[in-house]
Specification:
By secondary structure, the protein is an all-alpha fold. It has 5 helices and no strands. The chain has one domain. The protein is about 40% helix and about 0% strand.
Length: about 90
Amino acid sequence: MIETRCGLICAECEYQEQFSCKGCINTHGNPFHGECPIAVCCEEKGLVHCGECADFPCPLLIQYANDPQHGDTPPGARIEMCRKWAENDLK
């Protein structure tokens, strides 16, 4: 199930409960922390998630996935999730 534009899994996010975050898809790119440039980019392009983009993985997604403080564990996990979603879209 696709939960976010960038490949994060909402059920695994500590902010979902802590801040009553509804996620970027349900909030049209405005999760708990405000406007998300990745989600906005997908919405503007009419994409469900980053894995559908011709520029995947773009520098912005790579930056978010590898951010030292808020990045993925393991690094790049959201990119791999988008890749899996894209592969399933093609089947």
